Amino acid sequence: MNIDTNVLSNVNGGGSNGLSARQSDELRESFMTLLITQLQNQDPLNPMDNAEMTSQLAQINTVSGIEQLNDTLNGITQQMDAAKTLQAAGLIDKAVLVPGNNVMVSVDPENGTYATPFGIELAKPAENVEVTVTNRSGEVVYTRDLGPVAAGVESFSWGGVTNDGGSVAEGAYRVSFKATDAEGNALETQALNYALVQGVSPGAGGSDVRLDLGAIYGQVGLDQIKQIL
After folding, report:
1. 209-223 pLDDT, tens per residue?
2. What is the CATH classification number for the domain harbouring 126?
3. In this structure, is residue 176 part of a structural domain?
4. Total domain count for the chain?
5. What is the pTM assigned to this prediction?
């Protein structure tokens, strides 16, 4: 009597393919019943040797050990998910840069024009980066050479003014980048926009924590946070 290797595979699989606690208990009970029956009815002239009995006991112990290991790993996973949620909660009310090309401009009679920060992510260092800001109609309102920019994430601010020094109207604008290396070759860029973390919600099964960035930007994962401002 040997335990089918598929049983071990199912136990080790966990989740929906693994054995439940009730099924595992039934498996152990059936094993012991069969083993005792086998011992009682074995051929006296050809009894089960110690090696075979030890092998069968080892198999059922392996099933129990894997089940306990799965329980331990599930507990560790739950603790990690809780820690991730707690970490994400610390970002509430914090400003962050996430992938996107939006710039919001507001005008305050007392404090003047304010534009939200923006950023760029580069896989390679750039010899020169040019930034362009356009309005909703696609008209260019501001351009500037930023000069050399290192690889990684860099954030920038814009005063909400045109190239002529005049203030732009309140509303939404778009930012784009053109980056080149020392040989003049174009580099791939990722525009980043400003957002405020308003809440945290767990994903399916308690994992994949999502950050709520409001109605405009929706929800993003922690891996989408490129910089905390």
Report:
1. 888 998 888 888 888
2. 2.60.40.4070
3. yes
4. 1
5. 0.62
